[in-house]
Write a structure and sequence with these properties.
Elements: E1 6-9, E2 16-19, H1 24-34, H2 39-58, H3 65-68, H4 74-84, H5 98-110, H6 114-141, H7 146-149, H8 151-162, H9 167-176, H10 191-213, H11 221-229, H12 264-274, E3 283-291, H13 306-309, H14 313-322, H15 333-336, H16 339-347, E4 348-353, E5 365-371, E6 376-381, H17 394-407, H18 423-430
Helix pairs in contact: 1-6, 1-9, 2-4, 2-5, 2-6, 2-17, 4-5, 4-10, 5-6, 5-8, 5-10, 6-8, 8-9, 8-10, 9-10, 12-14, 14-16
Length: about 425
């Protein structure tokens, strides 16, 4: 798992010699410390900030607040709250929720310096994208929670850049974050999923602080860790900034529905197929056909809580057909437990294909809905709304932020109030423990 080899000329000898390849930690540290964001990168950063702060504020009144308040640091609390309602953005090639880790850490460690916060965010986000992609789809399908396995290291980079660490210190911080770089998908549908994210953010901040204080570590621990976690040789780690036009390669997917990203496409497909809400009693069968890999995180086939519904393909069919909008209300306990919803869950038949390819958007979702009048409506969808190929419109982002603020019971904040300079103050005010 080597990264960048450099070739140099030995001074005065006229001979060309090879300098040993940088290890993963050193190469990532060099990239993070030296790469400058473009205007396009900064535009992505601003959208990520708006999206992440909005979904964190939406969790202000969430039942998990007393538990989250027990976490030690702001970065941990904000990261957990930004992830708990599963409405945060996603980097598809790495299958990681990049911003739920990197935005809170940037705001917590850069203070009110907006330029430094945005720069730190992009450095950590770029590292997380590359590291998660290197671990690969095999890592995710093995059951690891990729957001937390690569998130702790990314958080260390964000905090390290915000604190002005040297490249050597950044590499040390990356290595010091390795012990916390874990988390499994069995946590999905429980409080542990978002708490894993908070703990990863917290560990990264602490790793940067330890490196700044003079702690030592072997940077090659990262290679050992990647090997143990199942790094994918088909997706080599890329750290050369010239190899990508953007600091976050391939872009970020914005969720339109507040549920696991694996549900965005089937909900969209069923909405387009049905053309609007239907009466549950008019449905006699629902058939979904989708590639096997796209359902990896959907671990609840018979959900009974709102959290379980966020990871249920069967419930995706129910809410898509029953609800005017599959928003926050559609993923509450009462909504999932509706008799009509449970009936549609039982009527849903799923066929998993072995179509080749990795990721949550490989292939397409095909849907069929049988009705009591003897008709069958069909449809197919490859790209859901909000995906990098179908980015959200300004109107969609404005509506999402407004919905989030309303859910959080916040009436004094407008989307224009959410900036890199004001974000930390806003979150510390609205999400203070006990508030």
């Amino acid at each position: 798992m080597s990264t960048v080899d450099t070739i140099g000329t030995e001074e005065g000898s006229g001979r060309t010699t090879e300098t040993p390849a940088r290890g993963v930690a050193e190469a990532l540290a060099h990239w993070a410390a030296t790469t400058e964001p473009s205007p396009a990168d900064l535009e992505v950063a601003d959208r990520s900030l708006l999206d992440t702060v909005a979904v964190a504020l939406a969790a202000r009144t969430h039942e998990i607040r007393p538990v989250v308040d027990a976490l030690e640091t702001q970065a941990a609390r904000w990261a957990a709250l930004a992830h708990v309602i599963d409405f945060d953005d996603l980097h598809l090639p790495s299958t990681t929720h990049i911003s739920t880790v990197c935005v809170p850490v940037a705001l917590a460690t850069a203070g009110h310096d907006g330029d430094i916060a945005a720069r730190a965010y992009l450095a950590g986000a770029g590292v997380m994208a590359r590291l998660g992609t290197a671990l690969g789809w095999k890592h995710y399908t093995a059951g690891w929670h990729a957001t937390t396995t690569s998130g702790a290291i990314a958080a260390a980079v964000v905090a390290g850049v915000a604190h002005g660490l040297t490249q050597e210190q950044l590499a040390t911080a990356i290595a010091l974050a390795v012990p916390a770089s874990g988390g499994v998908q069995r946590a999905f549908g429980t409080d542990a999923k978002s708490l894993q994210v908070g703990l990863a953010a917290q560990a990264g901040v602490q790793a940067a602080q330890l490196a700044e204080a003079g702690a030592s570590a072997d940077p090659r621990a990262v290679e050992a860790w990647m090997s143990l976690l199942g790094g994918d040789p088909d997706h080599p780690l890329v750290v050369d900034p010239a190899s990508d036009s953007d600091m976050i390669p391939d872009g970020l997917a914005i969720k339109v529905y507040p549920a696991c990203y694996a549900l965005q496409r089937p909900i969209g497909a069923l909405r387009e197929t049905a053309g609007g809400p239907v009466q549950a009693q008019d449905v006699t069968a629902i058939r979904l056909r989708t590639p096997r890999g796209t359902v990896t995180p959907l671990v609840h086939s018979r959900p009974h809580t709102g959290l379980e519904g966020k990871f249920s393909l069967e419930y995706a069919a129910a809410t898509a057909l029953l609800d005017d909008h599959s928003g926050f209300g559609a993923f509450g306990d009462e909504a999932v437990q509706r008799p009509d919803a449970q009936r549609l869950v039982e009527l849903t038949q799923i066929t998993l294909t072995d179509e080749t390819g990795d990721g949550l958007l490989v292939g397409a979702v095909d849907v069929e809905v049988d009705l009591t009048d003897g008709t069958t409506v069909t449809g197919s969808l490859d790209l859901p709304p909000g995906s990098p190929g179908k980015p959200p419109t300004e109107a969609e982002m404005t509506a999402k932020v407004a919905d989030c603020l309303q859910l959080g019971g916040i009436t004094s904040v407008a989307p224009s109030d959410i900036t890199w300079s004001t974000g930390a103050r806003l979150l510390s005010t609205q999400l203070a423990p006990g508030s």
